[in-house]
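Re-running the complex after MR caught last week's input typo. The corrected sequence lines follow. Everything else is unchanged.
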Amino acid sequence: MITKKHKEMPQILTVNKKIAIIPSVIIVVIIVGISQVSLEYVPDEISEVEIVEEVDNMIIMPVKSARPDCGPNDECYIPSYYVAKTGETVYWKNQDSAFHSVTSGQQENPDGLFDSGHIDPDEKFSYTFTEPGVYSYYCTLHPWMNGMIKVER
Ligand SMILES: [Cu+2]
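Corrected-run output:
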C-alpha cells in the first residue's frame, strides 16, 4: 500500500508542472498582444489630434461653412445637435475664413435669447444655458447654417 502511494506522487507532480506552463504561456501572449496594440495606437492618436481639435462643449464652424454644401448634412456647426446640462457654457468657434453668427431662433426669425453678431475667423462666442429646453440657432449670413442645443436638467 505504502509503495503504491510513493509511485503515484511523481506522476502528480509532472502533471502539475504541465498545467503551470499553460497559464504562463497565456500571460506572455497577452503581454505581447498589449504591447503591440499600444505601439499601433500611438501614431493614430497623434494624426487625429492634428486633424480635428475635439473639445467638450465646443461647437465648430468648420472651413467652407460659408458654402451651402454643409447644409444638407448638418455639418455647418459641428456638432449641429449638442446636449448640454443646465448651467453649462457652450462655446462656438469660427474656424472658417468668413464671418458667421450664432443667433438664437429660426432663420429670419431671431428670438432674442442670444446673438453673437458677426464672429471673426478664429474667434469664439459663448452662451451659458440656465434653463432646460430645446434651443435652435442659425447664422444670419448663411441660410443653410442651422444648429440645435438641448439643455437637460
Ligand atoms: Cu455663416
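None of the earlier attempt is carried over here. The longest strand covers residues 109-115. The two ends are 78 Å apart (CA to CA).
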